[in-house]
Amino acid sequence: GDPEAGEMGLAAVPGRQAAFRQGLAAAVQYSRAVGCPRIHLLAGRVPLGADRAAVEGEMETTFIENLRYAADLLAQEDMIGLVEPINNRITDPRYFLNTPHQAAAILEKVGQPNLKLQLDLFHCQIMDGNLSHNLETYFPLIGHIQIAQVPGRHEPDSPGELNFPYIFKLLESLGYTGYVGCEYAPKGDTLEGLGWLRSYWESRDLQHGGTSKAAE
């Protein structure tokens, strides 16, 4: 969409289907070029001045239509489409997709195996909490995970609500093998801010990159 016009994705925005398809085609070209097999299909915002409850049904219908189109196109490229709930309490009050429950229900209606849940634990904690249960419940749907401490949205070892060493061990126990995206704003220098990762590797007797010292 057009960020200067207040758009943040188009997948659920009625009347913008053609623009969504055009944007998706461009995203596929970029993804193919850089070898990235996953594309975030942003839902978009409730139209300015509209009542969310009044437009929710039409937006969900549009979202499902566009997701089915995207799934077919991405299947031809052997790519995965991702949908991410973004909290509407702090980050984006008008964003349409807000909770993992809403995302899971929509993905079930679409019914395509190459569409997955992009679960950002920052947004999930703000909207619902109950992270262990949500990770276990929605694990089969998860295609990508993002992390940031709550409420500051900084490094996972910064002061806040979330116990990331516990969460990482839970992900390991569930068998998660995908990427964990660092979707946070560093408090200072980026490399210095990655000290949490070095500490975590050391606590797990791992070398940088996640390989076991014992294996070497």
TrEMBL record:
<dbReference type="GO" id="GO:0046487">
    <property type="term" value="P:glyoxylate metabolic process"/>
</dbReference>
<dbReference type="InterPro" id="IPR013022">
    <property type="entry name" value="Xyl_isomerase-like_TIM-brl"/>
</dbReference>
<dbReference type="GO" id="GO:0008903">
    <property type="term" value="F:hydroxypyruvate isomerase activity"/>
</dbReference>
<protein>
    <submittedName>
        <fullName>HYI isomerase</fullName>
    </submittedName>
</protein>
<dbReference type="Pfam" id="PF01261">
    <property type="entry name" value="AP_endonuc_2"/>
</dbReference>
<keyword id="KW-0413">Isomerase</keyword>
<dbReference type="InterPro" id="IPR050417">
    <property type="entry name" value="Sugar_Epim/Isomerase"/>
</dbReference>
<feature type="domain" description="Xylose isomerase-like TIM barrel">
    <location>
        <begin position="8"/>
        <end position="199"/>
    </location>
</feature>
<dbReference type="InterPro" id="IPR036237">
    <property type="entry name" value="Xyl_isomerase-like_sf"/>
</dbReference>
